[in-house]
Amino acid sequence: MITLTGNSLTLEQMKDVLYRKKKVNASEKSMEAAQKSREAVERIVSESRVVYGITTGFGKFSDVLIDKDHVQDLQLNLIRSHACGVGEPFPEVVAKAMVLLRANALLKGYSGIRPLVIEKLLELVNKDIIPVIPQQGSLGASGDLAPLSHLALVLIGEGEVFYKGKRMESLEALQQEGILPVTLEAKEGLALINGTQAMTAMGVVGYLEAEQLAHESELIASMTIEGLNGIIDAFTEEVHVARGYKQQIDTAARIRRYLSDSLLTTQQGEIRVQDAYSLRCIPQVHGASWQALDYVKEKLEIEMNAATDNPLIFDNGEKVISGGNFHGQPIAFAMDFMKIAVAELANISERRIERLVNPQLNDLPPFLSPEPGLQSGAMIMQYAAAALVSENKTLAHPASVDSIPSSANQEDHVSMGTIGSRHAYQIIQNVRRVLAIELICAMQAVEIRGVDKMACHTKMFYEKGREQVPSITKDRIFSKDIEKAAEWLKTIEFSKLVASLPIEY
Predict the structure, then answer these.
(1) Quick check: 212 pLDDT over 90?
(2) What pLDDT, on the 0 to 100 scale, is given for residue 395?
(3) What residues act catalytically?
(4) What is the CA radius of gyration of the chain?
(5) Where is this cross-link: 5-imidazolinone (Ala-Gly) (predicted)?
(6) Mutual orientation of helices 11-19 and 92-106 as an angle, nearest 10°?
(7) Strand, helix or coil at 464?
(8) Which one, of 270, 288, 263, lies nearest residue 341 by Cα?
(9) Burial class for 404, CB neighbours closer than 10 Å (0-12, 13-18, 19+)
(10) Same domain, 216 and 351
(11) What does the pLDDT read at residue 505?
């Protein structure tokens, strides 16, 4: 059981809930804070004080006062009118992350929502009732209004959910679990939808996949080094310490460990003096991607525990301040940074693929073909990798440099962070397929060189990979192999894979 406090949620705990099916609950202290905040809202309503979102309309309607007899109607109208998401739904794991993150933010005690509503959100998480949330329609300020409105619909028994493998009306799933819909009170609709949880949830899931891919890319690259009789000297510790970047030093160290007992690597001058950059500069390029991913991780873990509501309630309601914590700019930048960092892993991977298949760049059979000419071998796999890399270059264009005014120019600068997070996720899927192609080609190359000469680490990885994709003995429909390898790379948990390798790491 993971206890949420609003302040201490980590990416590892997100992984536990999203992939290892751990349950969540709320700390008693955080629920007490939520209750005090709620009591402040009720005093504001009873005193008919003019406070944005509690006794007024929203956005450009912030100057329209709402009678206290209509506060329930105001919240219900807000959720229904703002549920304007379009397009395909977010992946279920992302929607579940969204619910979890919204509950965690509300537990900080600044939002004025009843503990009862937070309990309902936690029930959705624990019982895998996943809101159907369209991916498109958020500007990333004032928060992720449209996506989070679709989330909030479920609490009131409207909208749709994924439940037990089916897409169905929310009310049906709630009834099966004995969960009663709620009637939203003053400020509760606004508290549910004013935040960055869509872009952050998409970012969290993307980051977790990107982190695993970055590790896998190093092991795959190590196998490619063996397939090309790469020069190990370039990974010598002194070289990387001399520059001083920790992530570069660490990447080189992992590759040295993976290849420590390989008989397929060479020394400088043994076959050639220098390797091409796509081999020689792996620590510098992959290490730089790790630097960016570390930045992304830091920003996500801050945002996962951030109060992104508006207005925020302080000092038991004595201070109710309209600010802009819903603005997604920090995550928008982080997502754009992640796009570039992960895309670069595919850029350099595709160049290694080219070196594996191009007979002018190696001494292997042309295109790793079992019968060059009659059989095309991996020729078109490189085409596919090149197409994915090119597509990534378009997707990597920063979303955060764009803005467009909304709400009659009251909300005149927005982050586009949710678009950035979605594009980052698309890039990650493309990168995984490029790495899958490199893996297939690298396995074929080391097979030609001699599997018995491989390092223990890479040989174990090769053997596991061959369980997914057989050797190329004749041409076949390689798209099936690429998809199978990519799915394997997505589902294996890298820490467990490394733990299974024969040398302790």
Answers:
(1) yes
(2) 97
(3) 52
(4) 26
(5) 141-143
(6) 130
(7) helix
(8) 288
(9) exposed
(10) yes
(11) 38
Nearest to 145 by CA among 90, 205, 198: 198
Which contacts qualify for 143-146: CB closer than 8 Å, 24 or more apart?
143/193, 143/194, 143/195, 143/196, 143/197, 143/308, 143/310, 143/326, 143/328, 144/193, 144/195, 144/196, 144/197, 144/198, 144/199, 144/328, 144/418, 145/82, 145/193, 145/194, 146/82, 146/83, 146/84, 146/85
The percent of the chain in helix, strand and coil, each rounded to the nearest 5, is 60, 5, 35
Domain identity same for 389 and 485: yes
pLDDT at 504: 46
CA distance readout (Å), 132 to 71, 89, 234, 402, 488: 27, 6, 49, 27, 27
Q: Please say if the pLDDT value at position 68 is more than 70.
A: yes
Whether residue 333 is found in the same domain as residue 478: yes
Nearest to 375 by CA among 483, 484, 471: 471
Is 256 inside a domain boundary? yes
Same domain, 241 and 363: yes
**Any idea what the Cα angle at residue 348 is, between residues 365 and 492, rounded to 5°?**
90
At 346, list the tokens: 């595919």
Query: Which domain range does residue 172 map to?
Result: 2-195
Are 344 and 291 in contact by the 8 Å Cβ rule? The answer is no
pLDDT digits over 438-464, tens only?
999 999 999 999 999 999 999 999 999
Please write the tens of the pLDDT for every residue from 231-265.
999 999 999 999 999 999 999 999 999 999 999 99
Q: Which H or E element spans position 136?
A: strand 134-136
Per the structure, how many domains does the chain have?
2
Give residue 45's pLDDT.
84
Task: From 393, 341, 360, 395, select the one nearest 217 (Cα to Cα).
Answer: 341
Classified as helix, coil or strand, 186 is coil
| pTM for this prediction | 0.94
* φ, ψ of residue 262 in degrees (nearest 5): -75, 140
Cβ contact 36:43 at 8 Å: no
**97 and 139 belong to one structural domain:** yes
